[in-house]
Amino acid sequence: MKERVLVLGGGVIGLSCAYELGRRGHAVTVLERVVCGGQASGAAAGMLAPYSENTEGPDDFFRLCLESLRLYPDWQAEIKRSSGLTFEYTNSGSLYVAYHDADLLGLQGRQLWQRQFGASGVILEGEALRRAEPLLSAKVKAALHTPEESHLYSPHYVRALEQACRNIGVRIEERLGRVTVEEWRDGLALRSAEGRLFEGDGLLVCSGAWAGELAETFGIRVPVYPIRGQICAYETDYAETGVRSVRHMVFSSQGYLVAKENASLVCGASEDVAGFDTSVTDRGIDRLRKWNKAVFPFLEERTPFHRWAGLRPSTQDGYPLIGPLSRSDRIFFATGHYRNGILLSPATAKLAADCVEGKVSTERLRAFAPERFGA
């Protein structure tokens, strides 16, 4: 049965879910408080790096991230075809750097368990490391090279997702302010700040850092909090030379650096708790500048040309909320993806759409259950 689905939130997760639901024939309406992709999604660095960003071991979250990475080649091609737009999608591979012998042992341990999950990573040292990334600091002792990891340009990706949604008939309503749920037990009705009423058969909550507003409505704890991530970018000579000065995504224990086709080198992310404040601070950017020159010494003489911030929806246990509300057959969640919304967009879209269609087992969703934090 085809449903009229309301998707609350027009970030990368909301748009991805809306596209997948629309592609399957459902009548979908996206309800966005400001503009699509205006918060964490458009501000993200766009890294698709589950191996580099999950360093502890193969938990349920890592497995979901890895599933999403493997969906990306076909997913991004489909979004490009459906939208008629293009965006950068680069299989650059990654380097996770180490400065000391103790750090090298940690890389070796990660290499071993990640190989069991399809990684072909190798540890590079000496001349092999300098050939791979010539401008790395001489203080870098070694790096774990993971060829499978990629990145994309988030603003263009989100724009393409939005256009793909529109092209298949998804209705998008923006600048609604806070949207409240007026009825969800005997029907489904949501109202915008200006009083517009939206009705449907199902509701998919994708409102990111604002999902906690619905805790009282549904009678469950929704511990999703905004974490401000501050990012900066440096100019490179890629536009003139056609050669990337930085060839891989480069990670350290302090953050990451990734070179884009628009000739920028993006450095992030300095994180702090600042409520819903998206202003950029000198202190936040200085944190980035203090460590990035230890990775690439040439940055010491350069000043970022662009600085920005986004709000990342962090949950209490670090896992997103994905799945149905047990007390209702019309309320579903797909929110709280923290810094992995871009990476997780295809896997979440398919999982959320399967939830709406009743195709997912309780066991599959156990680790991400929206009600796991109690009433």
From TrEMBL:
- Catalytically driven reaction(s): glycine + O2 + H2O = glyoxylate + H2O2 + NH4(+)
Q: Give start and end of each FAD dependent oxidoreductase domain.
A: 4-354
Matching entries from InterPro entries are given as: FAD-dep_OxRdtase, FAD/NAD-bd_sf, Gly_oxidase_ThiO
Q: Which UniProt keywords apply?
A: Oxidoreductase, Thiamine biosynthesis
Tell me which EC number(s) this protein carries.
Answer: 1.4.3.19
Q: SUPFAM superfamilies from the xrefs?
A: FAD-linked reductases, C-terminal domain, FAD/NAD(P)-binding domain
Its pathway, per UniProt, is: Cofactor biosynthesis; thiamine diphosphate biosynthesis
One GO MF term on file is: glycine oxidase activity
Indicate whether Oxidoreductase appears among the record's keywords.
yes
Q: What class of enzyme is it?
A: oxidoreductase
The UniProt entry, under PANTHER family, shows:
GLYCINE OXIDASE, SARCOSINE DEHYDROGENASE-RELATED
Name of the protein: glycine oxidase
Q: Which organism is it from?
A: Cohnella boryungensis
Gene designation: thiO
